[in-house]
User: Fold this.
Amino acid sequence: MAPLLSMKNVTAFYGGSQALFGLSLRMRQGEVVALVGRNGAGKTTAIKAICRLLRHRSGEIRFEGKDLGPLASHRAARLGIGLAPEGRRCFATLTVEENLIAAARPGHWNIDSVLRLFPQLRDRRSKVARTLSGGEQQMLAIGRALMTNPRLLLLDEATEGLAPLVRRNIWEAVSELKSDGELSILLVDKSLRELAAIADRCVVLERGRDVWSGTFDELTPEMAVRHLGV
Assistant:
């Protein structure tokens, strides 16, 4: 079966600084993959390249067999790639409901289904995003991505800086998304314990290269120290 997402020997640069050095990655439909590595390893750069927020210099990125290279970010999104970016980046002056409908596309995910996933947002529906707590803004960012009805959901540091209870709520929501079995999810997060509980496998990045791939059970403590510093 052809992969849903395929990255092959991808290189990417920020100006003259190279950030990805031949990165390769494959994901199947319905698979949950964790992208892990030290700060600066290239995780967010890989996410940006998939979403076309950053154009890769060489190599190939395909989604459902279609070459993403020539596409603008909004066209990649229309193919079925949804992003909840690092730092949330909600539309601060729009209400929760307006944020959700801003990029909505027809499908299973609508305002009602998002509010069922994140009931904390129900009473905040008419509030502008800048008045929300950090955790509520993160839920809104994920909900907004789901409203595009993606095939692939990219979650970049979805629990960073959040209180433990809110982190647990986010992970419970991600677990619910996984249980559906249709949505593929690429996760970037620093918490290996939570990632190990939900991801089918992980891909370790080091200095812009993929250096290891396997299940978390196969990631030995020695390898974790060597590649992740934990």
